[in-house]
Amino acid sequence: MPNVITPEILAERVCRTLDLPVKDNAENLTEILWVALTETRDQAIGAAKAVCLEIAEDEAERCRGVGATVAQQTALTIAARIRKRHVEVAGSNSGT
């Protein structure tokens, strides 16, 4: 497995590449990189949840079309659970 590049390592590399003193600049850069990483991660999680929700809803519609009531109910339950969790997460992040 390749080495993980953390924001701390990346900040040091940026400082060295730009000929900036690591001691004076790496901490600020690390903080900026951690914020960006966290925001990107949160957006990726939200996008994955939205895709899962769309798949579950599509499956529910497909099940309705063929009259598979047990499968339909399962798909609707999955969609409702994903929507509930997705809305809760999205609602709690909207104030940040």
Descriptive account of the structure:
The protein is rod-shaped, with a radius of gyration of 22 Å. The chain is mainly alpha-helical. Helices cover 84% and strands 0% of the residues.
Keywords:
mainly alpha
Short overview:
This protein has 96 residues and is mainly alpha-helical.
Q: Report the principal-axis shape.
A: rod-shaped
Largest sheet, strands/sense/barrel:
none
**Helix/strand/pairing class, anyone?**
mainly alpha
Please tally the β strands and state the result. 0
Number of H/I helices:
3
List the helices and strands and how they pair.
Elements: H1 7-17, H2 22-66, H3 69-93
Helix pairs in contact: 1-2, 2-3
